Amino acid sequence: MPNLMEKLTILGGAAKFDASCASSGGGRAGKPGQLGNAHMAGICHTWATDGRCVSLLKVLQSNACVYDCAYCQNRRSADVPRATFTPQELAALTVSFYRRNFIEGLFLSSGVCKSPDHTMEQMCETMRLLRQEYRFGGYIHVKVIPGADARLIDAAGLLADRISVNVELPSRESLALLAPQKPPEQIFTPMHVIRRSQTMNLEDRRHYKSAPLFAPAGQATQMIIGATPDSDLTILRLSKTLYRKYHLKRVYFSAYIPVGDAPSLPAPGSPIPLLREHRLYQADWLMRFYSFEPEEILSDASPLLDPQIDPKCAWALRHPEFFPVEVNAASYETLLRVPGLGVISAKRIIAARRLGPIALEDLRKLGVVMKRASYFLTASGKFGGRMQPGNPFLRHALIERDDGAQLSLFHPAGLALPGAIQPAPALA
Amino acid sequence: MIRLYDGSWEGLLSAIFQVFRHRGFEDEILSALTFPGHSLYPVYEAATDPEQARRVTRGMARLSPALPKSAYRAFLSEQPGMEAALLGTLRLGFAREQNPLPLLGEAPVKKLVTLSRRVSMERERFLGLTRLRHVGEDLYAADIEPEYRILPLLGTHFHARFGDQRLIIRDIRRRLALVSTPQAWWIAELPAHEDLPPLPRDLEMSSLWRAYFAAIANPARENLRLQQGFVPLRYRGNVTEFISF
Predict the structure, then answer these.
(1) Chain B residues 8-67 with CB within 8 Å of chain A
(2) How far apart are CA A125 and CA A118, in angstroms?
(3) Closest Cβ opposite residue A272 in set B128, B158, B220
(4) Among A99, A359, A372, A416, which residue has the fewest nearby CB atoms (within 10 Å)?
């Protein structure tokens, strides 16, 4: 029987493949004299060796699993040490860490121990102890086990801030092939249940002021990238549908780290598609904040994201007729289309231009990345780029080079992945 | 003319009031704490007056609700040139009777906003990086070594979050301590020239946290330079998972 430290090592390590670790979206005020509140924007408490932020205690309730999903490190047929937290010890550990300001709260997922319902019951008991016995007011993100009863999902939503169901793979065919014990209905039904509970809860709160909150930080999900041959366009279309249909807050992408020797999966030792994951996050941001549609970013003819250039620049290169944009006159949505000009810079430009016309020299001070943007905009009629939009050499000027490397979540070697992604055909 | 203020926020605001009152268009404001002691320009001491300070704050709030907060945070940065940036920004703002903050093309505004942002970002970082250790009963303590004087900005958050605990957070370099009890929080001064007693090790929980931190490492995605960008080496001395004992 492993001791607490061994359990924490096993179950913390097993949970690291769940990419989501945000502690944002829940602004719980905290009661005077009681422990815990939730910071609306989330707080990063530390950063792991791969550079990603750690803000929650991310663990599995148990990594014993009766399923045998081919892509998972904890699948039944894998030979890994198994452990299970009791709800009491996990709740106590969470509170001890929280009191020392190590974490914002708990991220609780699990392998399927005995059955989905039994696992969800254990997880709900952990959360109940936290909320009711310890009066814990911090952040909780719970993963729903596919196949669990709707009443358990409801119970979980009333205890947690954020709730998710992992989509895992981007198409029904892949799911059927690699996770045959998780039929798509078992994944999409909980998402539907959660969405319905959220709507009903909103109604309740309109009528009863003290109705409890159901998952105030919303619903999220995660997809594994690179385990199957699905294209980026498929992935983006699925994300868009999920955002629209289930009102998700976030879709997370997790680069597949090869395990096992299932013939339909990349072999262990193949390169990990980190750059592709990065491009997908950039495309996801374009869809959520910059009003892009998946069909604008990619097309059936070129369904993969360009590894050499970010999707926004790629779009700008394909549409030279849209540029140059005059910063003193353009609308917010139009400004957002300029490479190097993001949401913050666009808002600053709009605030500043009310007080007077903006000159080219001021743009850098407003946060615009002139290295990219100078080719696509004018300020008071003045153009600062070394060449016009539409020039065939513009693409070369915009490509990020390794020597002046921007720091990113990727090992420099990861940028030169030979076989993992096909570069998009050169577009004039 | 140079006006010296006593180094406090109210003192700075009083000096600003006096500059505007006496139409000192060429005046410069400097802190008495860092003033070299001699200058070719005439030097006056600006007396601290809470009523003058209040009037300046009201004037700033009239220009923009964000201005008093940005100005205070820039003040906490304790950087040279901060007073000049604030004075320049206010001169621009009061001359036009308009919020000067969006005018990032103007050098004093840009500097003020940059300093304010740096202080805000360090505060955000320390909301996360402060590591409390259990001293006894309901008392927890932490040490931090921030670049800027962010301790007053941490009080509200820690007081609200740890409502049933007593806390002491020590800024070792500045010899200040944030003290929080369930009833209230305040800033206290620590003795300047003695060695501060070290914090207890809190070994059990520290070891568990370190074990967790080691377990979540993903060697396939290692990127230590990126990690260093978020947790600079200078902060790591007080962060449990980066020290060993």
Answers:
(1) none
(2) 11
(3) B220
(4) A416
Strand partners, A18: none
| pLDDT tens by residue, chain A, 428 residues | 778 999 999 999 888 887 777 777 777 777 777 888 888 788 888 888 888 888 999 999 998 999 888 888 888 888 889 999 999 999 999 999 999 999 999 999 999 989 999 999 999 999 999 999 999 988 999 999 988 999 999 999 999 999 999 888 888 888 888 888 888 888 888 888 899 998 998 888 888 888 888 888 889 999 988 888 889 999 999 999 999 999 998 899 988 888 777 777 888 888 888 889 999 999 999 999 999 999 999 988 888 888 888 899 999 999 999 988 999 999 999 999 999 999 999 999 999 898 889 999 889 889 899 988 999 999 988 888 888 888 888 888 888 665 555 555 554 443 443 344 444 444 43
Do A246 and A331 sit in the same domain of this protein? Answer: no
The domain total for chain B is 3
Q: B221 and A354: CB-CB below 8 Å? A: no
Query: Is some CB atom of chain A closer than 8 A to the CB atom of B233?
Result: no
Residues B191 and B216 in one domain: no
Domain that holds residue A346: 311-399
Looking at this protein, which amino acid is placed at residue A299?
S
- Residues of chain A contacting B111 with CB distance shorter than 8 Å: none
In a domain, A186, yes or no: yes
Whether the CB-CB separation of A264 and A178 falls below 8 Å is answered with yes
Domain assignment present for residue A258? The answer is yes
Task: State whether residue A291 sits within 8 Å of chain B by CB.
Answer: no
- Check whether residue B155 and residue B135 sit in a common domain: yes
Closest residue of chain B to A268, computed from CA coordinates? B220
Cβ–Cβ below 8 Å for B161 and A362:
no
Q: How far is CA A365 from CA A387, B67, B107, B111, B191, in A?
A: 22, 19, 9, 10, 43
